[in-house]
Amino acid sequence: LFPLLIFIGVGAMIDFRPLLAQPSLALLGAAGQFGIFGTLLLAAALGFPLNEAASIGVIGAIDGPTAIFVTTKLAPHLLGPIAVAAYSYMSLVPIIQPPIMRLMTTRKERLIRMAYAPRPVSRVTAVAFPIVVTVAISLIAPSAAPLIAALMLGNLLREAGVVDRLNKAAQNEIINIATLFLGLAIGATMTAEKFLFDSATGIQWQTLMILGLGLLA
Q1: Which of 15, 123, 134, 216 has the most CB atoms in a 10 Å sphere around its CB?
Q2: Cα–Cα distances in Å, from 50 out to 2, 41, 120, 216?
Q3: Distance between CA atoms of 43 and 148, rounded to whole angstroms?
């Protein structure tokens, strides 16, 4: 339940107008799938069952609620290390990105000032978008419907313009409270013998492998 509540808040914060004005931007998000599926294949090659490999690969989405939601469905016993990895790398994005940017671009390219002037998007289009996406995803990938529907519900609260109190609550109180309870609930599963060290088997190498694969993703 907590990831769904968080996604309602995230949806209320998102402005999809730049995407609707320039649909080609979706290719930037699609490129992230290479890291997710590449890590899934590597994890499977290292001996993780497919359900666990898929949960580890989703860390590459750089989105805590998504990783947690998928893991609770596929590999709930790995919820602790996967949640830690997902949120750790979300926090490390400002540290990880700059050296990669410097490696792959010249100083002249980094100094280019990008103009932000997308074509205007009508209010009808902005309101219809979350509804159409929810229906389409529910038909194409029913398993993803709860997360997408929650995300689009939050966006609909934003774009409808008639439920300002709910929109603000979703962006602030609801998402903050859900994040707090999500952290407490996951933290309660992270006992030392499951997460770090087991007296019978020694160091939990699986946790270290998940953290490493998550960074790659």
Answers
A1: 134
A2: 25, 9, 44, 18
A3: 26
d(C-alpha 64, C-alpha 67), whole Å: 5
Length of the chain: 217
Q: Which of 173, 168, 175, 126 is nearest to 150 (CA)?
A: 175
Mean pLDDT of 21-41: 85
Q: Is 15 left (phi over 0), alpha (psi -120 to 50) or beta?
A: beta
Is 9 in contact with 154 (CB distance < 8 Å)? Answer: yes
Q: What is the pLDDT of residues 85-99, one digit of tens each?
A: 888 887 778 888 889
Which residues share a beta bridge with 198?
Answer: 202
Mean pLDDT, to the nearest integer, of 181-194? 80
Q: Which tokens sit at 17?
A: 């107008």
